[in-house]
Amino acid sequence: MITHLVAFAAGGLAVFLWMSSRSSTTPATSTPPAAGKRAAPPPTSDDDLEARIIEYLSSNVVYHINDLCQSLEHPKGARYVRSHFHKLMEEGKIRYKNMVYTI
Asked: So where are the chain's domains?
């Protein structure tokens, strides 16, 4: 019984130390949004990226979005390119028809 209590206390101490080390790594300058107000989403418009996506689609046959994401090599990564690609699809600038992405 005592070994169970010691093991539980050690586990609790380990979790406490782990959580306190994680909270100290967060930046202290960030302030939470005021009550009732949401933080504004970061701007996602990147006209150069949109032009590069449209240019790639017009000059290549794209069967899968990963082909486009890997070939553009944006500094913010493939997820960033994918989000803009989906935004263009929602706006109707890109269509998916007959298993091919087209403009």
From this structure: 47-102
